[in-house]
Structure formats: structure tokens, C-alpha cells
Amino acid sequence: MDDKIKALMSKRREASLGGGEERIAKHHAKGRFTARERIQMLLDEGSFEEFDMLKEHRCQHFGMASKQFPGDGVVVGYGTIEGRLVYVFSQDFTVFGGSLSETFAEKICKIMDMAVKNGAPVIGLNDSGGARIQEGIESLAGYTEIFQRNVMSSGVIPQISGIFGPCAGGAVYSPALTDFTVMVEKNSYMFLTGPKVVKTVTHEDVDVEGLGGASIHTTKSGVAHLAYPNEEETIQAIRELVSYIPQNNLVTTQKKETSDPADREIPELNAIIPENPNHAYDMKEVIKLTADDGEFMEIQPDYAANLIIGFARYGGTSVGIVANQPQVLAGVLDNDASIKGARFVRFCDCFNIPVVTFVDVPGFMPGTVQEHGGIIRNGAKLLYAYAEATIPKVTITTRKSYGGAYCVMSSKHLRGDINYAWPCAEIAVMGAKGATEILYAREIKAAGDKASEVTTEKEAEYTEKFANPYEAAKRGYIDDIIRPLRTRLRICKALDMLENKQDANPPKKHGNIPL
């Protein structure tokens, strides 16, 4: 038996080295960690249990029969993050450049199936050159088996992708199907076709960073949600992200103990809105001042920054935050912001995470670029997401909420549970200036030299009658007009009251969101 145990341990040592010490050294020289090192950083110490450590590929073509590495380029298994079960796969670039084979795919599919059966998140650490060309259609079949599981798992268990190196060709679709994608700056990239193909087909000169680096996907394409300067920070961000979301769609996130009193008053909020309605303020300050311990994990901070999304806690309860940002384009809704918000609200609804919405929105962005880009369809996505959501929805209107954007931003009419407004809020079809120019156009024109005086008078009249929160409150569209300093208390109490909320949509296979 001793000899057999020694033989086993020898095989396990060989498998643990992936592509071998020389390739590991080259990998380290580039400032990158190995697949196993990333798992060690991600999971609680000593919690990782590995599967299929000795599994090998079955390819006989192109001399592959003599090129065998135990594990075949991907490390899979389960462990814990802060004591919570998660499943993980980590691609090993030191073995065939992390390319995906039939065996490689089987290993990933195994833990994805286990994750669904046991109701736990799946985290994929990607570092792969794409399909293993030597295996041809078998590698493509392997990718598609993974994609099918990504889709079937969607809304059932959380799925998170970390990109730690190349992620090219068919490899990009699995991260694209997951809930969140986190990249390493200047050391990871995602694209369907590489720079050489782009050069041949479109004659564009572009490098991997300019084509699909982290800066591109977090600012322009919106494919990635977060990016960090190094692998350690990227992995820590994934751990933090997991802390805000539940294990699966049948449970809620466990409350986190906090010493921050729910009834903490915030005098700063009474003065945060500028006297001049055209001046901006930072909505992130409102979020941080009201959230537990000032903690807020923003998602997609550099993409469509006129809309803020992310996670925070109120009274220990994890919530999704959606908020207009007056500092960027006055907080207007445009194509990118609408899509960004819609996807996030739908994620929260999938996993029973309440949504708190802070509203300060002048409307939808006008112009041919937006109209031709589909602002009607894209704005409808955000509307659809809020209307479909059955989770607790608490809305705070801080300064203004105009026109169609009022309807879309978690209004009472989209089954908003609790809708509050600050005393300075303006809730109307449009701002006083625009409304006056339409409603009193003839009177202003007839006033001649006194047109400006008439305009000022009518603007004040319109503001008093309509551009305030009281008209909405009279009709029950606003549940209460609250003092800003008590915003945290009102949110915490609302979430406590809504803890056991039950709501449902009509029976159907699925809706047809305007994609």
C-alpha cells in the first residue's frame, strides 16, 4: 500500500505543476499568478476541494497523444468564501495556453451542474487562448455545452467571471452570459477576433489593449463591470461581490451585523441640494451617507456614469442601488444608462435583492444620436425591468423627476412599494422653464418688451402649482414627503416592513423584453 500511496502522491504533485516549473516561472515573470494560486487567494484558507485532478485529454491528432498534462489545463472544485459554499474553475495558461478541449469542458460542466443542484454560486477564473485547434469540433462542442449551462443557470445561481489573461474567440461568450465580469487592467483582454484578423478584414491597426482591454470594456462596450490594477485586488473584489449576493434564487442574502444605528440622522443631507437648480451635486455622497457604515460597492463606475448602480446595506440588509448622477449629463437617461440600469435591476430581481432608487432625473437624452440608437427601445428596457420586478422597491426622489423618466425610475405606477420625496423635489411633466414656453407662448409673445417679466412670473406660477412633490403626494403617488436628514431611517424601516413581501407576475413562459 505504501508504494501505491507514493505513486498517487507523485501523480498529484505532477498535476499540481500544470505545464511544469519552467512554464510557471515564465508565467510569474509576467507578473501573473497560476490557476491554483488564484484559487488559493479567492477561497477561505484550506477550504478548496478539487475534482478531476488527474483527468487527461483524449485527442490523438497532431501528435497530441504524447502531450499529456494531468488536469488538462483547468482546475475545478469547490470551497468557501467567508464560510459560504462556492464552486470554482480556474484556467491554467501554462497548459496549452489554457486552450479548451473536450475534457477541459467536461470538467467545467461537472462543477456547473453541481452548483445548480446544490444552489451555490459559480466563479470562473478565465485565462485562455480559446478553443484547442487540434480537437476541432470537439472543442467547439465543449464551449457550447458550457454556454447552455450558463443560460440554464442564469437567474438560478449567481455566476461571476474573472478575466486574468486572454479570453478570445468563443471563450468570450461564457463570461458575457454570466452576471458579473471583473478584469485585470493591462493584463487581460476579451475579443471575438484578434488584431491580425481585424487588420486583414477592416484594415484597422489596433493592439490587444485597444481592441479588448479592460479600459475598453469598462468604459466603452460595457462588457466588463469592474477592473483593478492587479490580480490580488481583482480577486478581493470578487470576494466582496459575493458577500452582497445570496447563494441562489430561493433564498435571500443573510443580514450582516452592523453597529450603524438605523435611526442615525444625517444633517448634511438637508444642505446637499444646491439652491441653483442648474448646479450639480454628487449622488454618491447621498448613497454613502445613508448606507451602513458608508460602504458602497459601485458596479460599472466608468460606463454610463450618468446612472449609478451598485450594492450597499441598510440595517444589515443587502440592497441594489440605482441612482441618477447629477454630476454627469445632469443625470439624464440615455441608451447606455438605460441598458445598464435594466440589467442590474433584473439581476437583483432574480436573486431577491431589494432595490433602492435615488431619483434626480431631467428626462431622456434628446437628439438624433439617441433616437437613432434606439432610446425608445432601450428606455423601455429599464421600464420593463422595474415593472417586472417583484422584489421590495424603495424610491427616494431628491430633486427632480420629469416626464417619461419619472415613469421609468421605479415610480409608484410600476409597483413601487414605498416612494418618498424630499421637500425640494419637483415631480412634473417637465421643468418650469420648458412648460412655461409651451403653455404661455402666446402671452409671452404678446408681452413684447416685458416678455422676460411675464416668463419669470409664469415660471413661478407653474412651479408653485406643479413642480413640487405635493401634487404627487395628494394623489398617493408619493407615500410621504420626508426630511432629508431622516432618509436613512425611512429606508431602513421600509426595508424591514417589506421583508416578507409577496408579489407575482401572471403565469407565462417568459416575457418579451425589448432587446
Quick structural summary:
Helix content is 38%, strand content 18%.
Salient structural properties:
515 residues; alpha/beta; 2-enoyl-CoA Hydratase, Chain A, domain 1; 3 domains; eight-stranded mixed sheet; 20 helices; 16 strands
Write a structural description.
- The chain has 515 residues and is α/β, with parallel strands linked by helices.
- It has 3 domains: 2-244, 2-enoyl-CoA Hydratase, Chain A, domain 1 (Alpha-Beta Complex); 267-429 and 468-497, 2-enoyl-CoA Hydratase, Chain A, domain 1, CATH 3.90.226; 432-466, no CATH class.
- Helices cover 38% and strands 18% of the residues.
- The chain contains 20 helices and 16 strands.
- Strands 1, 2, 3, 4, 5, 6, 7 and 8 form an 8-stranded mixed beta sheet that branches. Strands 9, 10, 11, 12, 13, 14, 15 and 16 form an 8-stranded mixed beta sheet that branches.
- The longest helix is centred in the N-terminal third of the chain and has 17 residues, at 102-118.
- The chain is elongated.
- The mean pLDDT is 92.
Number of helix segments?
20
Largest sheet data: 8 strands, mixed
Cα-atom Rg, whole angstroms? 26 Å
CATH class of the largest domain: Alpha Beta
Total domain modules: 3
- Calculate the terminal CA-CA distance, rounded to whole Å: 61 Å
Give the proportion of residues in helices. Answer: 25-40%
Total number of beta strands = 16
Low-confidence stretches: none
Residue-averaged pLDDT:
92
CATH superfamily of the largest domain: 2-enoyl-CoA Hydratase, Chain A, domain 1
Q: What sort of overall outline do the alpha carbons produce when their principal axes are compared? A: elongated
CATH architecture descriptor name of the largest domain: Alpha-Beta Complex
Strand content: 15-25%
The SS-based structural class is alpha/beta
Instruction: Say what the CATH topology of the largest domain is.
Output: 2-enoyl-CoA Hydratase, Chain A, domain 1
